[in-house]
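Subject: DNA replication complex GINS protein PSF2

B.,
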Amino acid sequence: MAGQSDSHLSLFSPEEVEFMAEDELVEIVPNLRMDSLNFICGDYGPFYPQIATQVPLWLAVALKKRGKCTIRPPQWMSIENLTRVLEGERDSHAFQPLPFHYVEISRLLFDHAREDIPDIYMVRSLIEDIRDVRFHKVETNLEKFTASTVTWKNMSAMEVNIIRAFSGRALQAFYKHENEHMMPDTDRTQDRQPQILNAPKRNLKPR
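Prediction pasted inline below.
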């Protein structure tokens, strides 16, 4: 996986970020009875028709592709909530609270469960607007970046991934610059030291 050699400065690819997002839990409604499914990551089920249950997103997509369930969009994807978030993003310099993987979750649901999302075109438009406003904030914050103002909260995985390399290198540059002022000038220090190494020895007379 990318980033193992230097996790502080490297970037994850969009595919890797999406892969991590697939572990997020979502709610499904099975349309058939099925025994429990046992995986290394955990056990899910048993499943009963029309009884909602939570499973990882990757499992929900797999069952959806096989026609065995519908996927319930998370509450944060409602038009009312997204409209409120978009207004908050536009009216404030701060990032509004959203799931860490909101970009990846919404993309996967748009790709694999579009018929399960009411008013999908409006939902997609709102999420794209939110993402654009937040990315503009990221660019603005990078222009004002200093070592003493790293206080960004509520950023998503994709947004963190965008600024990760830049902020890591910038902090290293700030640290190096500040340390140069703190380090003593070795040449001047040596000049100020008394030159006693080559001084002639003084013979003391016995009393």
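The chain has two domains: 14-72, 73-180.

T.
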